């Protein structure tokens, strides 16, 4: 009789074990960890072209910005400080590009920087300085190496810095060659006076330091020594002994495996019209594995040693290419060896189309980056170390496409496979990725627009929890802007924990004060920008943190659209009267300054896009093109109104306004790519894009140059754009005003809108209810059925102004009953009743018939509850409803 007790005990133990497993996660190194075990914290944002970072003791992060800024994130105080500002040449792609700490940093406090020196002399410098007490001592600068460059033509500067475990310093340099006048070929222009357009003078030149990865040993007194084992032995005529890797175009990001010593580098590829042997365009980006020094092919080979034909810029003829086994640099601009080392193929390569060899990488524009190799044994006691699943894997990432991949190798160290890493997140141009000593991942994101300070340029910390998972903190505020004093209610109700059963506690920090509780209220007495930090604890040592800002000193404008018409529905032949009102606490506002827009949107669900972006509703006719642009790689080079690598869409619209055939020309440009119209920088082709889709994109771009007629602040608008039976379209009238800003707070928007939809609403589209939905495929219809006494459906925020009747398409196929329309709750006032008989409607098609119920005169918007009642208490089906319709007469 003790057996049940034994089973009871085993059940308890098993339940506890399962709960423990749920908290601990799988320890099986063959099982990929669940995405819920990662937390992502934005430490700083709004950065100005971040380039490279160094993680200092205590998890302080120092990073450089291309225009010369050096900034420090202090982990203890969670603040971002400006440390220094280098005077740099920041034209083309030059600037302050790299930073790394000396391997003995904790003793000597040396940081190394790579930057383009300001002034007339075209030179990039590698130098060393001391960093003490959060200050960069510029007076301690010691020059290690200077590299002559050219600053006439763009592009490719690279500039990344890394040390290996032997204390050797690596520096990547771009080919620094005219990349904008290639006519779709490689830059091997040997014509007199075109030396700066010949990559054979730089990356393929054994006597030049550009287009390389250099390896040197910095000396304490300055300068450097040459370590053993570089590509060319010291003293070899016509070579530079600093060269470790040559034949690179723009080796932007690389890493060194501390276990194998292998170097992995991403090389950003060209846009070319030449094809590989398999027919694919040779616009390849590469990830290369360097086991020993070598030549990696550019400008003669790409990918798996695919050969470029030799283009003669003088005659315009394409001749045969080089031999990868014995490439010869016969350019008159070559100052080094004529015979180069055999070319080494890439480990991973992919172009603008979908790759048949590496299908996970996607398509579109590309900028391949090689990140770190993860080894678990380097993080034995690290609290945030990754799962053993990633042991020995290389992380690569994509600036343009925004992904991270984990690359696995076979026993011989060769490429085996790749898989997405953190695929539940999209990254905005990741530019640097490093592991901290505690196992956390730090990521720099460059942001959307090139050469710009981007609001989405960030420093991010990512933590992995093998055991107890950290809670996810979330802050909701009732108002984020307002005049002083401003009382704000804050809620942590949206926070959550992936481990079931954890009791969460909440700690708030604002104005150097702490508060506790899931909801708190705080009054900010003076104007200013205030940081609010929320820490959520789970009682097991796990904490999740997030923050938001409260802006005190400027109140959003108050904008209203007044109307005597119904604010929910349009009716055939109707009109919409309106009057705009606007006020602002800090500014004097004229209603003439309010931006008004009105239009008909064929797909009503698209109205949310207009309202969120403040767009003219008329632009929705170009929505498909807008969405195509958003989903392709276009944003990496273009924006609507901010300068980037390519022209703004507004500039394109202005140039081609009214020109015959512009749509065809631009659509072809999008598909085939090209250069020359806006400078010589090449535009990526999109050969997989359908011609019709490219035309939709062009129509949207050209629409940005069209000026709509300004609406008066008061008037009457005809509702005549919809077609009879058009159930999906909506009319949208929107009003928006931006104030002047006040008390150091940026300008704020005030807005209001009226959205009018078809008065026929499908019953199954209810916002809440306790009924079932049937779908009849053969009849292409869905309806509400299984209605019993006490069932209901409700619709939120429906205006009953001028509504006189409600029609129902009902099927009287049951016991019958009454439809009662209640305001704002199931028990609210009843404004309409409609009786549905038992049995069937006589003469009705398939039992369906429209029936009408009158509505008591009601003003304003309410939540409507359609409650179905029957005196009988038995669970009987009453009737079914297909749709309901609101009538104004």
Named CATH architecture of the domain at 558-755: Orthogonal Bundle
Instruction: Calculate the mean pLDDT score and round it.
Output: 90
CATH class of the domain at 558-755: Mainly Alpha
Which shape, going by the Cα principal axes?
A: globular
For this structure, the CATH topology of the domain at 558-755 is Cytochrome Bc1 Complex, Chain D, domain 2
> How many strands, which pairing sense, and closed or not: the largest β-sheet?
6 strands, mixed
> How far from one another are the termini?
78 Å
**Which blocks of ≥5 consecutive residues have pLDDT under 50?**
1-23
Features:
Cytochrome Bc1 Complex, Chain D, domain 2, Immunoglobulin-like, 889 residues, Jelly Rolls, five-stranded mixed β-sheet, 7 helices, globular, disordered N terminus, mainly beta, six-stranded mixed β-sheet, single chain, metal-binding, Glc/Sorbosone_DH, electron transport, signal
Note down, in words, how this protein is organized:
With 889 residues, this protein is mainly beta. Among the domains are: 476-552, Immunoglobulin-like; 558-755, Cytochrome c-like domain (Cytochrome Bc1 Complex, Chain D, domain 2, Orthogonal Bundle), CATH 1.10.760; 760-887, Jelly Rolls (Sandwich). The chain is 8% helix and 37% strand. The chain is built from seven helices and 57 strands. The strands form 16 sheets. Strands 10, 11, 12, 13, 14 and 18 form a six-stranded mixed beta sheet that branches. A five-stranded mixed beta sheet has the order 32-38-37-34-35, with no helix packed on it. A hairpin with a 4-residue loop joins β4 (69-74) and β5. α4 (623-631) packs across α7 (691-703) and α6 crosses α7. Mean pLDDT is 90; it is low at 1-23.
